[in-house]
Sequence to fold (389 residues):
Amino acid sequence: MGQDTITFELEKLVKCITKNKSDYCCMKTYQLLCTIFNTTLSSEKIENVSILYRLIFYSFKQNPITAYTILSGFIKFGQSNDGKQYKPLLDHLTTEAYDKLLELGGWSILRDSLNTFRIQLDNLNEELIFQHIMTLILNQLYADEHEVESLDNLSDMCHYLPREKSFSWGWFSYYIASAYYSQETHTNDKQLMRRSLMQYRKLLTRLRKIVPCHKAMAEEKEVQDQVHDQVRVKTPAETFILLEDQEYKWAADLIEHSMGTSSPSTMEDLYAHEELHAFEEHEEQHTTIAALKEALLYATELEKFHTEVMQQAQEAREKQQQEQEEQAQEEQAQAQEQEEQAQEQEQEEEQEEAQEQAQAQEQAQAPAPAVEKKEQTNNTGWLSWFGWS
Fold:
């Protein structure tokens, strides 16, 4: 597959971005990366990856879900056999991309981004980007909880974190509670986990009471941006020109620097340094890398257990609903049968009544019996004999 074919596939991806076909973007990104890293020259490889990388932030302005699916394609390529040798590089690029998206959209991107990653990727909790997101959340949550000097320094992240009963992404609350209270949570100790969830709920409730929510403002800005960008549909050629704007220069420079000067081994060292730095951002942070990984494994088990319980409850509800429907159908059939019997009985009574009326009418129209005529004749004879008229 030559450069012309790759350009053609990039144009198809741009058309999908324009038409908001986000489901297609993850697999298309993954396939493009496989082709780019396996068939193109070094200079073409850097330029193609750079275009693909900048499309993440271009699509974010139109539909954030599309940006998350393209980013999922980068992670998915790192999970494949073709991408294993580039895994440190891809981990570095994806974490840098997520930090930029977080800068653009704020903490409101957490739910949709993590749900998108969970749908598109296998074993998300084992990926470094997931651990990176967890460190960002844990450090910010720790900072918000222990902020005593000025309430103005608190973030609004508490309004975008889930409770365990959340239908859309309650699954993530197990990971936060397990990691944040990792010193109190131990494997296979569900009582301590419930306590961690309770403390986590109380912390969210307390923070939400004192922190204003900017969600409405963020959603309004997102709608305005989408309307502004969708005034006229841009062609792929116009989109590629827009990717040269100054706002995407940092992304192009990052790809140029990372792929042009760094080997996989140095990239791995770089990411390890960044990962450690993320945990050391707050000196009082009590969660270590080892504790986080252990907590994530435990949270995964809890999530599976919770999923099984929810599935069993759903099956029980469906079974109960089916039984109620069958009972309702049976009662309806019985009621219909009784109604038919009542109709049949009513018809029989009407037929009997009609027969009785017909008999009565026949009797009324029939001639007088002969015996009455004879009596009348005999009486008339006696009167004549006496000379009576």
About this structure: The chain has two domains: 3-127+215-281, 157-210+288-325. The longest helix spans residues 289-365. The CA atoms of residues 379 and 385 lie 10 Å apart.
